[in-house]
Design brief:
The structure holds two protein chains of two kinds. Chain A is mostly beta strands. Chain A is built from no helices and eleven strands. In chain A, 0% of the residues lie in helices and 54% in strands. Chain B has strands at 5-7, 10-13, 19-24, 31-37, 43-50, 53-56, 65-68, 75-79, 88-95, 105-106, 110-114. Classes of the chains: A mainly beta, B mainly beta.
Chain lengths: 113, 115
């Protein structure tokens, strides 16, 4: 699979603060997806991006598909305690061989009240 | 159903024993994916299906791993002669082909512990 670099590795913030995390790749992707994983659970899809330059929101979450198609970022505004979890970016190459997701290593978010 | 279902939740096997994991995709989804999540949160793609046909098996360790998706049955991932390094959480995801790509929806996972 392709290597994705996700940063930061972890974040420790106060409730109400905004958060930003990003992912970069050496390869061009056709799709970027952002997931959140809680302990003992499967990843939950937050946002899907399909076009270079696309900016998409889902409530307090905003994500963008980079112009170069090699990067994406996720912003969380006005964080709340339930935002705690691990956030993963995933890039997808659309090819004849399949649609396997290539994941970043995750950003662990801790929010203090 | 409306969610991807995986069974069992936990599975413990002695080294060398067989392990079999099951996945029921979301009703109407024609793609099924299997991923392995090991320590440090790393996800590794194993295999995907389009209906009952293997779509991409580039991630499968072919010596001991096999998978099937048969009509009217849950999909399965089987590991023959498990090894310690097979200990991981195995996730199944399903998808419906959209206009731009595949949004994959994950199940809760099966935690396999090989002792």
């Amino acid at each position: 699979g392709q290597q994705l670099n996700q940063s930061p590795q972890s974040m420790f913030i106060q409730e109400g603060e905004d958060v930003s995390m990003n992912c970069t790749s050496s390869s061009i992707f056709n799709t970027w997806l952002w997931y959140k994983q809680d302990p003992g659970e499967g990843p939950v899809l937050l946002i899907a991006l399909y076009k270079a330059g696309e900016l998409t929101s889902n409530g307090r979450l905003t994500a963008q598909f980079g112009i170069t198609r090699k990067d994406s970022f996720l912003n969380i505004s006005a964080s709340i305690p339930s935002d705690v979890g691990i956030y993963f970016c995933a890039g997808q190459l659309k090819s004849n061989s399949g649609y396997a997701l290539n994941f970043g290593k995750g950003t662990s978010l801790l929010v203090t009240p | 159903g409306e969610e991807v279902a995986q069974t069992p939740k936990h599975l413990v096997r002695g080294e060398g024993q067989k392990a079999k994991l099951y996945c029921a995709p979301i009703k109407g989804h024609s793609y099924v994916f299997w991923y392995q999540q090991v320590l440090k949160n790393e996800f590794k793609f194993l295999i995907s299906f389009q209906n009952e046909n293997v779509f991409d098996e580039t991630g499968m360790p072919k010596e001991r791993f096999s998978a099937k998706c048969l009509p009217n049955s849950p999909c399965s991932l089987e590991i023959q002669a498990t090894k310690l390094e097979d200990s991981a959480v195995y996730f199944c995801a399903s998808s419906l082909l959209g206009t731009g790509g595949l949004e994959q929806y994950f199940g809760p996972g099966t935690r396999l512990t090989v002792t």
